[in-house]
Design brief:
This protein is of the alpha/beta class and 228 residues long. Helices cover 42% and strands 17% of the residues. The chain has an eight-stranded parallel beta sheet. The radius of gyration is 17 Å and the shape is globular. Bound molecules: pyridoxal-5'-phosphate.
């Protein structure tokens, strides 16, 4: 199942890229394995999958030791400052930095680990109260400025979640907003490369607006069961 799903998703990404004149090789497909055990991750690894996404520190810790070390972990869930110590040693990318305090803590831990931690800033581009992320331009620039000066943090891009709706216009607007913010920050010399946007239901729209990292769970691993 996972193999067929992965192949289908990869094909869909490639087809969409060709249609809109983008190079599929520029897209990182992150297989979001939250709620699925390490066995599922290993199956995907055996199909050549290299990038995986997790939402909770505890789950990342549990799976990490069972999975080959050349896998790249992306932490994509809301991260409490006091949990950063579990995530920094394991994640190549942290997509969900939404506070200066969190960036400072990540920098502190990364320094102890002698690591250059790649991070993205999570931006709230929808009105949904359940979604996390930065909204204030001043705060965004403040954190970006901190990262620029810090030797243990590499701010590589921006991340967002589109609103959960069938209204494609609203979804696209959310992605456009992220792309424009990236351009704006790059105009101020921040040199951001990545746009982490697009999930199972909206990755084609995200590709149209310039996504470089897609975070796809359901289409690869199946519907999640949160009760187990
Ligand atoms: C769960 C999750 C995803 C994957 O969602 P699917 O709809 O299953 O593809 C992507 N990004 C974040 C932040 C998530 O929490």
């Amino acid at each position: 199942m996972i193999k067929e799903n992965l192949n289908r998703v990869r094909e869909e990404i490639a087809e969409k890229c060709i249609k809109i004149g983008r190079n599929p090789a520029e897209i990182t497909l992150i297989a979001v394995s939250k709620t699925y055990g390490y066995e599922s991750v290993l199956k995907a690894v055996n199909c050549g999958q290299k990038d995986f996404g997790e939402n909770w520190a505890q789950e990342l810790v549990e799976k990490y030791d069972f999975v080959p070390k050349d896998v790249s972990w992306h932490f994509i869930g809301h991260l409490q400052t006091n949990k950063a110590k579990y995530v920094v040693p394991r994640a190549e990318f942290i997509h969900s930095v939404d506070k200066l305090k969190l960036a400072e803590e990540i920098a502190k831990i990364a320094q102890k680990q002698n690591k250059l931690q790649k991070i993205l800033l999570e931006i709230k581009t929808s009105e949904e109260a359940t979604k996390h992320g930065l909204t204030s331009e001043k705060e965004i620039e403040e954190i970006a400025g901190f990262c620029k000066e810090n030797p243990n943090i590499n701010l590589v891009g921006l991340m967002t979640m589109a609103p959960f709706t069938d209204d494609e216009k609203k979804v696209s607007q959310s992605f456009v907003q992220l792309r424009l913010l990236k351009d704006q920050l790059n105009g101020k010399g921040f040199g951001l490369k990545e746009l982490s946007m697009g999930m199972t239901g909206d990755f084609e729209l995200a590709l149209e607006e310039g996504a470089t990292m897609l975070r796809i769970g359901t289409a690869i691993f199946g519907t999640r069961n949160y009760s187990t």
